């Protein structure tokens, strides 16, 4: 096998690998390993709810601290988290009604 043939074969083998990485790997798994049960109340900034999917069986709730912008996973079974989500939902739905 000549050098040109070997190089061409390696290039052709590498092409599909580059095209198969359209979705970053970190999205294809659960984001939350540890979940905060302790209330963090007024320090909560934006909250993101990621529904259960084929990549993660759990509904994940990720809040951002207002102070430094770090993200923390919240336990969806904790009563205080459910109250926060209900408050956010009611604020969001009342804004849509007012518009």
UniProtKB/TrEMBL annotation:
Annotated compartments: Secreted
Major location (coarse): secreted
Sorted UniProt keywords: Cytokine, Secreted, Signal
Signal peptide: 1-20
GO cellular component: extracellular space
Molecular function per GO: chemoattractant activity; chemokine activity
Keyword Secreted tagged: yes
GO biological process: defense response; immune response
Function noted in UniProt: Ligand for cxcr3.2. Chemotactic for macrophages.
Assigned protein family: Belongs to the intercrine alpha (chemokine CxC) family.
Name of the protein in its database record: Interleukin-8-like isoform X1
Native organism: Solea senegalensis
